[in-house]
Design a protein that fits this description.
alpha/beta; Peroxisomal Thiolase, Chain A, domain 1; two-stranded antiparallel ribbon; 13 helices; 11 strands
């Protein structure tokens, strides 16, 4: 059977702009929430429905991801008075958001449901911490952990450090250059009323903070928080009837891997990350390139993850990542701001969803910053990015989110203003 006229055998062009994110919601980013992931997840889903202007009966699909810490979708759906035609709960962390958006599109394209809520709920500070500490420790050593923990790779920082160190060795990148990621994200967070850390940092602050796992200083590492987040995806034709300007989805990459995901250093340079492969799907599918992107949301579990992804997705040349992130290009007011909410380094840690939420709000031209609200109920953005001020990017039209699970796995998405 021939393909539709507006597509070809290699690129799903017919999916461009066919689906949109129409609702986003979250809880407060805090520590010691004193709440269950079920309570927080239900709140985030209800907030996203209210944001979109949807009723429970309008949402008939649900996807979630967890790491031995969340609540399954049907429980959240029941608490929110939803009856689902499709649901799926998957195990996953940092690369999940964009991947599940792609799955949601596929599920709706197959006719299994019409509108999908995707949520993540985690007590990432008070209960299950990534390094295996906290009130609830991670699962006993089993499976692939039998390999990684034998080498001292228990936490994410320990696992990723060899990639970061090799990159610095190969290209002469300095800790001071990479520290600018934290500096810039802290500037953005200072204009975000809901960010957990709002203090502006300096390069000296970062490189003089205590060493956690070379080359990672404390301030190279993300904040740990308790929170829940949600996004709602539906067809663009439905989005036109809802509350906000939709964020149209141009293209998605879902959990793209290096030749080996686990021992990724055995296939290709250890300093190469999955984005090097994912870019060959993302840019053709979305019909744009790095030069067309106004705002990036590059996953910042660590300062280094942002740098490596921006390089391997093609925003700068090989070995130029340190120069790119230290040039100031990522600052609000400059050419291509990154993580305008403060990201995982400052706003809160959500395994990637808050950076998608931020870019959706940027594309609405209605970011929730400290600018005054006018008589029409909308914020009167000043585009003055001084501390405690605006963080809306002027005239933003196209954004890219670059998700990270580990050096060997990543996801990504391009959106545009509807």
């Amino acid at each position: 059977m021939p393909l539709p006229a507006d597509t070809d055998a290699s690129t799903p062009k017919y999916l461009r702009d066919k689906y949109a994110i129409v609702g986003v919601g979250e809880t407060v980013y805090t520590r010691g929430s004193g709440r269950t992931t079920r309570a927080m997840g239900s709140e985030a889903v209800r907030n996203a429905m209210a944001d979109a202007g949807l009723k429970p009966g309008d949402v008939d699909g649900m996807l979630s991801y967890q790491g031995v810490d969340s609540t399954f979708g049907p429980m959240i759906a029941g608490d929110c008075a939803m009856r689902l035609n499709f649901y799926m709960d998957v195990f996953g962390g940092g690369s999940s958001t964009e991947a599940l958006i792609g799955i949601a599109i596929g599920v709706m394209e197959a006719g299994l449901c019409k509108c999908v809520a995707i949520f993540r709920s985690m007590n990432g500070f008070s209960q299950v911490r990534i390094g295996g500490t906290g009130a609830r420790s991670a699962a006993p050593v089993s499976g692939d952990m039998l390999h990684t923990r034998a080498y001292g790779w228990q936490s994410a920082g320990q696992s990723f450090a060899p990639t970061f160190m090799r990159y610095m060795h190969d290209y002469g990148t300095t800790p001071e250059q990479v520290a600018m990621v934290k500096v810039i994200h802290s500037e953005h967070a200072s204009n975000n009323p809901k960010a957990y850390y709002k203090k502006r940092m300096t390069v000296d602050d970062v490189v003089n903070s205590r060493m956690i796992c070379k080359p990672l200083h404390l301030l190279d590492c993300c904040v740990e928080t308790d929170n829940a987040t949600c996004i709602i995806v539906t067809r663009a034709e439905h989005a036109k009837d809802l509350r906000h300007t939709p964020a149209l989805i141009r293209g998605v990459v879902g959990r793209c891997n290096k030749p080996r995901m686990d021992m990724h250093y055995q296939a290709g340079p250890i300093s190469r990350v999955a984005g090097w492969y994912a870019k060959d799907i993302l840019w053709p599918n979305s019909g744009v390139g790095p030069e067309d992107i106004d705002v990036t949301g590059a996953y910042d579990a660590f300062t280094f993850t942002t740098m490596l992804q921006l390089e391997d997705y093609g925003f700068c040349g090989r070995g130029e990542g340190g120069d790119y992130v230290s040039s100031g290009i990522m600052r609000l007011g400059n050419k291509r701001p990154n993580n305008t909410s403060g990201g995982h380094l400052c706003e809160g840690y959500t395994h990637g969803m808050n950076m998608v939420i931020e870019n959706v709000r940027q594309l609405r031209h209605d970011i929730d910053d400290s600018c005054p609200i006018g008589p029409d109920g909308k914020r009167q953005h000043t585009y003055d990015y001084k501390e405690g001020g605006c963080r809306q990017v002027k005239n933003v039209e196209v954004t890219a989110n670059l998700g990270w699970a580990m050096p060997g796995t990543g996801s990504a998405m391009v959106m545009r203003r509807g």
